[in-house]
Design a protein that fits this description.
With 437 residues, the protein is of the alpha/beta class. Helix content is 48%, strand content 14%. The longest helix has 19 residues. The structure holds S-adenosylmethionine (SAM). It comes from Nocardioides cavernae.
Length: 437
């Protein structure tokens, strides 16, 4: 068959559809991927290949773009052609795809998606990239490691420079920085939670998994589709990072004197932590109010809670800044605030490129108000856990410090900061605060 008429392989076509949706429509890769896989009827290894191609090309574009640019003779490139080149660069520099296969399939792809015009350019650029290994390219296009470590890692590990700087601040030193950034680039394992009283860890282990080291409710799946595990399909278990389980447990296990009957999850959508908390509350004879501002996310919370016994959990769709309850009624409150999400980069390939330092001001203001509401909602003597899936100091310790500075009635009693490279979890933060009686 001639070059021109060779059909484009479906995993690569699907991967390009994901890149296009993320770039042109602002889609989230993890949400659009299942739709694209269905559209192209991809399963098993082909689905795995399309997922790796799309996720890797989006995640690593901070390295691939300067490499591509170094191979261009003219600086301008159509966005659609750059997408094809990013996919080709990922195959050449980070996967075990033979060079000839990576190049010829990319040429086929650009012919089918853009036209014959850029086929020669794609061929020439990818041939140039294939002549050197990834470390040679990093040495060529990244700032020097000795003179500008953060600038070097921003390219070598494909993170925006401001994110590298902010993560280094959060770590407090540079010695683990590269490990952290590399961990952000590795696909996370699928972790399940057995909601206590509804499913057992043994039941999930039998589905092909092993226990998580720190959460007593977690199981890491060794393979397969989590949706096909009966306990997950029935809502007795769920997909939940071990770090998120530990945050919910920080609230449930905080030492509390006196009444322990009514719990609040102030920002509950989509409901992972609410479901774990509600299962524990049911075992202790307590109830949970799960509040979420966005109605469609409140519906997801209700779905996550479907296996919890009736009467234990109540879902509210409301703005946590204007509470629908009287102050001081709750014994335990979780405020898992909206944040930059820069602690969960492993599972959101495009997230690092969507955030900007200018987002922080608005988010921090919201986080402070929500923490204040949580502290007003808890009774004297009760506990509040303030959590984020970001380790940035502006969103974590600085929010807690700012709120505590204006409240004489609250003390911090515990703090947790998890890291992907140390703990194998998302970089979750949780501060446990007690409102004094
Ligand atoms: C980090 S997520 C919570 C994740 C959730 N706890 C879980 O484990 O599934 C933050 C949530 O806060 C919600 N949110 C943002 N502003 C809010 C507000 N003013 N009141 C209540 N919820 C809010 C967002 O819609 C989002 O669903």
């Amino acid at each position: 068959m001639s070059e021109r008429r060779r059909p484009v392989d479906r995993p690569r076509r699907a991967a390009l559809d994901v890149l296009t949706a993320v770039r042109a429509d602002g889609a989230y890769a993890n949400l659009v991927l299942p739709q694209v896989l269905r559209k192209h009827r991809l399963e098993g290894r082909d689905a795995g290949l399309a997922t790796e191609l799309a996720s890797g090309a989006i995640r690593m574009q901070g390295l691939y773009d300067p490499v591509i640019d170094a191979c261009l003779t003219k600086p301008r490139l159509q966005p659609e052609v750059r997408d094809v080149l990013r996919l080709g660069a990922h195959q050449l520099l980070s996967m075990r795809v033979p060079d000839h296969a990576a190049i010829s399939t990319s040429v086929d792809l650009v012919r089918a998606s853009v036209g014959q015009g850029p086929a020669g350019l794609v061929n020439a650029v990818l041939r140039a990239i294939s002549r050197r290994g990834v470390q040679d390219w990093i040495d060529d296009v990244a700032p020097g490691r000795a003179s500008d470590l953060h600038g070097h890692l921003a390219v070598a590990q494909s993170h925006p420079r401001w994110v590298v700087d902010a993560l280094a601040d959060a770590l407090g030193a540079d010695d683990e920085l590269e490990d952290l950034l590399a961990a952000d680039n590795a696909a996370p394992r699928v972790t399940l939670v057995a909601r206590p009283g509804l499913a057992s860890v043994a039941e999930l282990e039998a589905a092909g998994g092993s226990r998580t080291p720190r959460s007593p409710h977690g199981v890491v799946l060794t393979g397969g589709d989590p949706g096909s595990v009966p306990a997950v399909a029935e809502g007795r278990a769920g997909v939940q990072d071990e770090g998120s389980q530990l945050v919910a447990l920080a609230l449930a296990d905080a030492v509390l004197e006196g009444r322990d009957e009514t719990w609040l999850d102030l920002c509950a959508g989509p409901g992972g932590k609410a479901a774990l908390l509600a299962a524990i509350a049911a075992q202790r004879g307590a109830t949970l109010v799960a509040n979420e501002r966005q109605p469609h996310r409140a519906a997801l919370v209700a779905s996550a809670l479907r296996a919890v016994p009736a009467g234990v959990a109540h879902v509210l769709a409301g703005d946590g800044m204007r509470p629908a309850w009287v102050p001081g009624v709750f014994d335990r409150v979780l405020v898992d605030a909206a944040c930059t999400g820069l602690g969960a980069l492993r599972r959101r390939p495009e997230a690092r490129w969507r955030r900007a330092p200018g987002d922080l001001g608005q988010l921090v203001a919201l986080q402070q108000v929500l923490l204040d509401v949580a502290l007003e909602s808890v009774r004297p003597g009760g506990v509040v856990v303030y959590a984020t899936c970001s380790p940035l100091l502006a969103e974590t310790t600085e929010v807690v410090q700012a709120v505590l500075a204006r409240r004489a009635d609250t003390v911090e009693v515990d703090r947790l900061q998890l890291w992907p490279h140390r703990d194998g979890t998302d970089a979750m933060f949780a501060a446990t605060l007690r409102r004094e009686g």
